[in-house]
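We examine the record.

___
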Amino acid sequence: MRTHRTLTRRATRAGLALLIAVSLASSAALAEGAGAPQGFGSNWQSWQADTSVGDRAALQRGARDFFNYCSACHSLQYVRYSRIGQDLTIPPALLRKYLVPADAKPTDYVISPMPEKDAVAWFGKQPPDLSLVASEYGTDYLYQYLTTFYIDPSRSTTGANNLALPNSAMPDVLSQLEGLKRAVFRNVEVDGTTQQVFDHFVMVVPGSMSREQYDRFARDIVDFLAYVSDPVQVERHDLGVWVVLFLLVFTWLAWLLKKEYWKDIH
């Protein structure tokens, strides 16, 4: 398992970097139009992912980051490697070399290599499959989850907690990129009782990415998971435009036909 994880990380860092380089132009345009990081304030429930599954460059980056940081624990059991390669325009040779594990085929589903007994021993339960997580919880929730980890010494197993999912079994595995944050709470009176309410984050140890870079990183992963939850949504939306146009033309023809049939009566 450790060998597989190491190979996956090395391969995706080197391999998909080539794919991202091909789309530098569109990536630069996206960076110019992207919103600023949501910040460290108390209104984290209003933070929005602002993703678009029609952005192929973002999906390519999200695929790279997912297989680099998430696939060792999480599976995508309803999508095949070959489908990802086809939709994201990853050449079969690169897909086979950099994304598909040595013991798998491109037509296989994306399954985590982590044995269930190890997952239970380390995390207390099997990490969830993420195939439909974007459809179930929404992209905004996923974005908030990835950006609201904070240091919590009371959590002896992971040392971290999360605002979007309190007492999450998942460690803050992305802290090396984002950095370590401390959550500051304030006391408020609610119905005569004092409660602690989140106020803001304080960066304790900076990560390897700036806030803007990590914000883009989180959005790209969320974008990829949104695509995985419904791979045909872009094609369906495009087809929907033609369906609506057909119905409009058909309605117009039906009106002309009705007018022709009823012209002698009216």
Notes: The longest strand covers residues 193-206.
